[in-house]
């Protein structure tokens, strides 16, 4: 575990399904990309592998079964198949070619999240490792950060920012690096979005004296932790 987000690829030819899952999974703290067909999914997987693929069966061109077979041949990845089919033979076929799990549409988003967590924990047990530094601990599988044995109530963006500081503990992280790593693009130099989020984190840590999150003026911020 290194504090980085779990990467999810949603593969479905229906835009509404892709949008729905992207919104829901990002709200849960996952890093999400989408593909509308199997070939695009394989290309994206080759460019930057994902931890888990949510894969529709019924798609034009390469169907989900063939895409799953090819994914499992080349990558160590969790595959959960989605389909309108709920026949037992369809489930068996998907599992035989390597799918880790199978959900019939319509499905419960909460059930999908639960199955994702179970399969990820089983396939990547190292992601269960809780890393502790000083009074902080990060459990990336659960997307939780503890401070002095109390869970911090963080938004997904606050979680990403805190993980970045945690990964670079006692090292100054520049504002530019924070923008690129947390927001994924360059913000206008006049923007104070980083300062706003740093202030929010300090409030949640009750760090009024800036004991833990320190400002290095002209350079950036660092999480100051002993031990």
In short:
The protein has 227 residues and is an alpha/beta fold. The protein has 8 helices and 12 strands. Keywords: Activator, DNA-binding, Phosphoprotein, Transcription, Transcription regulation, Two-component regulatory system.
Percentage of residues in helical conformation: 40-55%
Return the structural class: alpha/beta
CATH superfamily of the largest domain: Response regulator
Q: Strand portion, in percent?
A: 15-25%
Describe the oligomeric state of these chains in a short phrase: single chain
How would you state the average pLDDT, rounded? 86
Question: How many individual domains?
Answer: 2
Measure the end-to-end span.
18 Å
Number of helices: 8
Largest sheet: 5 strands, parallel
Computed over alpha carbons, the radius of gyration is: 20 Å
Q: Unreliable segments (pLDDT under 50, ≥5 consecutive)?
A: none
Kindly provide the name of the CATH class of the largest domain: Alpha Beta
What is the H-and-E element order?
EHEHEHEHEHEEEEHEHHEE
Write down the overall geometry: elongated
Spatial order of strands in the largest sheet: 2-1-3-4-5
Which architecture of the largest domain does the CATH hierarchy give at level 2?
3-Layer(aba) Sandwich
Domain OmpR/PhoB-type: 128-225
GO molecular function: phosphorelay response regulator activity; transcription cis-regulatory region binding
Protein name: Transcriptional regulatory protein c terminal
Pfam families: Response_reg, Trans_reg_C
Characteristic key phrases:
alpha/beta, Rossmann fold, Arc Repressor Mutant, subunit A, 2 domains, five-stranded parallel sheet, four-stranded antiparallel sheet, 8 helices
